[in-house]
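Figure 2 data, in text form.
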Amino acid sequence: MSASDISLAKSLFHILTGDRSGEAKELSQNASRAEPANFLRHVASLSMTKLADGLIDPKLVLSWLMQAVGAPASLVSWLVPIREAGSLLPQLFTAPRIRQMPQRKWAWAVGSLFQGLAAAAIVGIAITMQGMGAGLAILAALAVLAVARSISSVSYKDVLGKTVDRTRRGTTTGIATTISAAGVILFAVILISGIFGRMNLVIGAISLAALLWIAAAAVFSRLREEDQPGEPGKGVGWHELALLWQDRDLGKFVIARTLLLPTALAPPYIVLLAAQAGDSRFGALGAMVLASALASLVSSYIWGRLADRSSRKVLIFTGLVAAVFLALGIGLDQAGLMNTVWAAPVTLFGLMIGYQGVRLGRSTYLVDMAPKDNRAAYTAVSNTTVGVMLLGFGAVSSAVAMMGPEAVLIAYAVICVIASGVAFTMKEAG
């Protein structure tokens, strides 16, 4: 980088972080000098990948696409489990191999590249195939995307810990989430407007997501990451599950994170509650995307800054926020108001504010709490365990849903309160 580029990077870094002291709490001298440029590369890469996630959202966009190509409803129901569990479960297998890499940014970049290629494959499938074949092919491409995402996820926290100092990590994620949310809002507004044909717009959005993932891989590969001696291979890594009871802080964190899963799983039941009440307007794809994106936009930066002060308190607050809005949705339904134009969007908006806080709080807490030389293992154990629990939550929720979406939302609200209680017993990270 030229002297002017370095000066600009430092200026933007100080403006965005509000920190002009230049003091490093964890980084080496060389890493501290490279931090401003690395911070901006993190923000750029994450902004692109998070926007890509929003454009290809399995809960909304891919669900609509599967129906548009005539895939059976039974296949549509597998989108979210494949996307979420596929992103989490492989990490215990991939972590030992990633820990052998002196520079782990390459694992993230390769994962982002393959996510882009998988998204491009989904575009090709949607254009050329129909029916059951199209549905199965999209699920296969989504599985590849999810596994690639798991590789990026298990390597990211380690790279972040080596290149951005402890008091600025939540800010990095918060800024990127806010930027990407603005892009998703624009996408939602265009969907609602009806200016373009919906199929063409969805295909265009997924194509853009593919390009964003590929571009993010290129940007991330330019991070200045110090070499770290590769750790010896340790097989598949199942023995590392012992960390859950050997490190009580990790065990409590995983319990709290598991109990906060309703923040991710509840939205479809809110939509179902609104549909049962007769609010067909809320079923529009654009309105659903807009409510979720607005929540990200207004809350992510604030959650990120709060996480840098106390990620533990963020997890406490987010559980309570989610519980309050889940209870609000139930109350509005009991009062006969869920069919109004504002009830379901307000409920989903508040729930998504809680969800964004959970995502930022859990990420920052784990990076700050885990030993510097073992972040990849802690991340893999946490994500793999939560991935298994996610499948269990899905199965139990499906059974409870036989009594109606209200029963599921009541259970979720209670679980979120319990999650806040568990987070309250956790120690402060860092």
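Caption note: The chain has one domain: 39-222+238-424.
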